[in-house]
Every structure is written in structure tokens, then in C-alpha cells.
Amino acid sequence: MQFSFRYLRKHRREVSNILKDLKLQVNTKTTRLNINAGNIWNSALKGFRQRNFSPTNTIEIKFTNCKNRSKTDTPAASKHRFFQLLLLHLQNSSLFEGSSAKNLSLDFQAVKENLYFEAGKMIAVSLVHGGPSPGFFSKTLFNCLVYGPENVKPALEDVADVDVAQTIKMIKYANSLSSLQSTIHDYYEFLAAAGCLRPVTALCDKHMLVNDILIHHVIKRIISPLESFRQGLKTLGVLEKMQMHPDVFSSILCYKPERLSAEIICDLFTIHSSSDVNKVKGADFWMAYLQDVESGESVVTLEDILLFVTGSFSIPPIGFDPEPTIKFLHIRYPIGNRLINCLELPITNTYEQFKDKMEFTIRNTLSVERE
Length: 371
Hints:
Layout: H1 5-23, E1 30-35, H2 40-49, E2 58-63, H3 75-91, E3 96-97, E4 103-104, H4 108-112, H5 115-128, H6 139-147, H7 162-172, H8 177-186, H9 188-193, H10 205-219, H11 223-233, H12 238-244, H13 246-253, H14 262-268, E5 270-273, H15 276-294, H16 302-310, E6 325-329, E7 335-337, E8 342-346, H17 351-370
Helix pairs in contact: 1-13, 3-5, 5-11, 7-10, 12-13, 14-15, 16-17
């Protein structure tokens, strides 16, 4: 689904404001999580379950295997990186099923260990503490969370199990009463186990049958994981806000963030300058440079620029704290001050000089960090 930039910008601002309100619950007391990036799930689970962990405490991330953590990382960048790794793990874990738009799966061991609750809690904490959003919920999963499972009508694309999907298709596309009855006979055990056996006396009865199977497989089967997951998402009041603002939250929970553009980056930064002349000229060079980067006429990417200034290569739904700024100064080369998300830019006579300094500094800084 494609959103217009204006629509996205409006939703981004709304989400950011809602999450900032929720973040007012977070106090200055710090809880440190020791995280092994190579074993992200177990170390995150251990951290979230430690006795002194509270979602309302400030979270500090210490990566124990330092080679995965650049020495220039700020606390905010380390935290964003941690939540990024954690949500990526969750997306590909046994708790979810489906390709890109995912529903909850039924993992009995995970139910036993209360992992669906922990997953919901981790997502809620990520959103409020400046991490990314998952962006992989199916519309059906989102609607179950927001409107309640009893009010949701699942679709065939929600079925990840190939055999079950095939069974539903056989019933759905049966073109005569005899072929429908024959299919029901072939899948009698499956239908009985699912509690979906019903008398079929006309071909049109297949629609009710398909609906019953979908509701059983996509919703009733996973009702226990769903309830645990919902309880976890109640952490810090996130689920309540989702229910109050469904359109706004579906844009970050069901869709990956749009690719960075020159316009998005330009919109992100506020420009400060000691002189109006320097500000106008510098702002022109800055915009021209972003256009060059966006069109591929540069050795760096827009993500590189964001990383250089903030330590993150994507914009978290809550936004950056403090909000990114630009200053034009009499300096030789650009400086990315990640502690305050400030990009200090040199005042130059020509655009070529400006671009050369940007390319040289950003490329060299990031390549040293990646070593």
C-alpha cells in the first residue's frame, strides 16, 4: 500500500506526539541491559525478566561483544540498534507466521514460556523508548488487537499453512455440489478437528464453510497467544493508544517505513545560523546536496547522512530526542554531534567545495566506524 508523502508526514507527526506523551511515564532511574548481539533473543529476554527491570525506567544498553558496537555510539544509538536487532529477530521467529504481513503462530512451547506476552511488551517498550516499530503485522492481526478477534473477518492470504490453504481453495472453488461433498469427505478429519463440520445441501453452503475454517485457523486456534500478546502490548499504555488511533498506528505497525528521501531529511532538520546570509546560502547548498544524494550522484546515501548525525540509519516513530538541527559555522569540515543530533556544516564559497567536504568527511567517518 502506497501512502502519499503528506499523508505519511501527518501520521508520523501524530504517532510521534502520541508516543512522546507516553514517554512522560519514563523516569531517570536507569536499568542497564547487557546484550549479546549474537544471541539477541536470550539476552533481551533475560534483561526484560530481571528483577529490577521496569518499562518506566530509562534503558541503557551495553553490548557485551564490543566488535558489534562502534565506540562512537551514543546511548540513544545503542538503544535503537538493540531494538532494531530484537524486532528483526521477532519478525523471523516461531511466534509469527506468514511472509511479509504476519499473523501470530501457535507455538505451544512459547505459550508455556509466556513468550507472546514478552514479545508484546518488547514491541511496546521499543515504541516508547525510541526504538523502531515492527512494520510486519498483518491487517488481520492488527484488527484483532484493536477491535477484538470476534469482530474480525480473516482472508485466505492470512493462512500461512500451505496444506490448510489448499483445503480452503478446494472448497472455495468447488463448482458443483457433488465435488464440494467429495472434498468435505476427503478432508473429514481435518474439518471435524477444527469444529467446522456442517450439513451441506447446496453449493452456496461452501461460503459459510470457508468462513468457518478461516475463523478457526487464523483466529480461534491462536486465541491464547493473541490474548498474551495483547496483554504485553498494554505495557506503558500502548495498546490503549492503538485502539484510540487505529489509522495512525496501523501505518507504523503494518507497514515498513518509507525510504528516506531528500524531502524527509530536509523536513527532519531545523536550521540555525548566526547570519541570515550564511543561512540562506548554506540551506541552498544543503538542499542541493540532498538532491544529489537522492539521485545517486554521490558516494554517500541519505541513510549515511542520518547515521553520521544521529547514530541511527532510520527515523524512529517517536522521533529523535533532541530533534535534529543544523548549524552553519566557520569550520573546515562537517561535524556530526550525535549526543545532541546536531549537524555542524562549514560555510563555503561554492557548492562544489561544500559537496567535496561532505563526501570526504561522511565517507571517511563511517568507514572508520565500520572497521
